[in-house]
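Exercise 7. Given the encoded structure of a 196-residue chain, write a plausible sequence.
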């Protein structure tokens, strides 16, 4: 999409009149627009997040995305609500901005398909990992996640601290983590699924 030729009532960019159109706002909307070329070059997650918070923008849109780019990585950007390919025309862009302003998401079909496939594969892997956990290991994980140390876990389950360490070692292998911090992150994302 040629954002320079988009009607000015839609877009305001942060540069001189002959801007490079890397970092813009949709003037009539609460949306920050970032050109794909600017990602990780002049912008970072932290910069975008801070800019959005400081200026009250609720939504992020990435535009001029090449069709062959790695769209899986884009979903990590803060408050991302829409994505437009380089070839998107002005009417589609306007329609997308209006939808985003109404609280909807605006992503090309192939992008949502790709993200959905990744999510399903991740869930399947989690299910596979968690189905290998024994009842005792799930109890140990729950106690670990609740903030207890090995001694307290041992006391709670009436087992030795050495047995807790053995359980933790087996758990870490089964859920593919290397340490307590990674295990806690895994628990944060997956423990509710295991406990059901």
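Solution.
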């Amino acid at each position: 999409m040629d954002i320079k030729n988009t009607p000015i009532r839609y877009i305001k960019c942060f540069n001189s009149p002959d801007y490079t159109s890397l970092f813009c706002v949709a003037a009539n909307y609460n949306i920050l627009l970032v050109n794909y070329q600017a990602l990780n070059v002049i912008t970072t997650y932290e910069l975008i997040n801070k800019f959005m918070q400081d200026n009250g923008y609720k939504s992020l849109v990435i535009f001029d995305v090449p069709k062959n780019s790695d769209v899986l990585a884009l979903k990590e950007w803060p408050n991302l609500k829409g994505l437009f390919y380089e070839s998107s025309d002005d009417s589609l862009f306007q329609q997308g901005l209006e939808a985003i302003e109404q609280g909807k998401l605006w992503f090309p079909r192939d992008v949502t398909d790709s993200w959905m496939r990744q999510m399903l594969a991740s869930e399947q892997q989690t299910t596979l990992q968690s189905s290998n956990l024994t009842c005792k290991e799930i109890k140990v994980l729950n106690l670990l996640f609740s903030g207890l140390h090995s001694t307290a876990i041992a006391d709670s389950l009436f087992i030795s601290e050495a047995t807790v360490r053995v359980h933790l070692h087996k758990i870490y292998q089964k859920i593919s983590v290397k340490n307590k911090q990674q295990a806690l992150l895994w628990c944060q994302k997956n423990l509710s699924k295991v406990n059901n």
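Remark. Helices lie at 45-55, 90-101, 109-131, 135-145, 150-157, 161-174, 180-195. Students should compare their own answers with the one above.
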